[in-house]
Amino acid sequence: MNDQHLEKISIRLKTRTIAAVLHLPAQPPPWPLAVISHGLFSSKDSPKLTELARLSALAGWAAIRYDHMGCNESTGNLRETTFESRMEDLSAVIGSAGEDGRISDGPALVGSSMGGTISLAYSGTAGGISTVVTWATPFTFKSLRSGAPGLDHPGMADSFYASLNQVDLTSLLPRVNNALVIHGSDDELVPVDQARHIFEALTQPKKLVIIDQGDHRFTRRTDLDQVFNQTIEWLNEHLRGSLI
């Protein structure tokens, strides 16, 4: 996609700024929207999330990828990150998109790893979401702590780990439907059983896809292609269908 189909966006939230990139389809508006949330220490510029946004625009809907507080181009202190602050970031991005007259109501949420947990929690709390897709997403963080694989980062405050340990999707997931859960069978950071817990708690319609021998990042290209294909197919059916 060339630059004329990309828009850089700055979203003000309290004392910080969220950096985002909006991918626009060639078709005239209004467009459905997919909001793409990255994992814990990742960013909007993750190659796989950037590719997903590009594929989304090619499929005919807009896609916005953004940086959470203190990550990449967004301002704020990463050390002060909590689960609640990430929920605030996502809410601000959705709110900003809702003010864009080119965007249809009822966005889809796509989240990778912790971004998936944020997406599920938001959908179960706020409503108004047409569909949710999660990749390699934790159901719970209660067994995780400072120094745990994938969570360790120099200087993170104790409040960060405390906020994660308080996350409980149990009461929220039954409020979420039209959800696709994708997970690798050999995920080294988030056990595949967590995907099954998420799937069992969701309301129909829903779908669970286990990538055979897939790791947390879907490193093998064949695995990532399967993730992209499943995601685009699901969004094409459920995002568009919710807006007819």
Question: Can you give a write-up of this model?
Answer:
Helices cover 33% and strands 20% of the residues. By secondary structure, it is of the alpha/beta class. The model is unreliable at 145-149 (pLDDT under 50). It has helices at residues 47-59, 83-98, 114-126, 158-165, 192-201, 221-241, and strands at residues 6-13, 16-23, 33-37, 62-66, 108-112, 131-135, 179-184, 206-211. It has one domain: Rossmann fold (3-Layer(aba) Sandwich), CATH 3.40.50. An eight-stranded mixed beta sheet has the order 1-2-4-3-5-6-7-8, sandwiched between helices.
List keywords for this structure.
244 residues, 33% helix, 8-stranded mixed beta sheet, alpha/beta, 20% strand, 8 strands, Rossmann fold, globular
Helix and strand topology:
Layout: E1 6-13, E2 16-23, E3 33-37, H1 47-59, E4 62-66, H2 83-98, E5 108-112, H3 114-126, E6 131-135, H4 158-165, E7 179-184, H5 192-201, E8 206-211, H6 221-241
Parallel strand pairs: 3-4, 3-5, 5-6, 6-7, 7-8
Antiparallel strand pairs: 1-2, 2-4
Helix pairs in contact: 1-6, 2-3
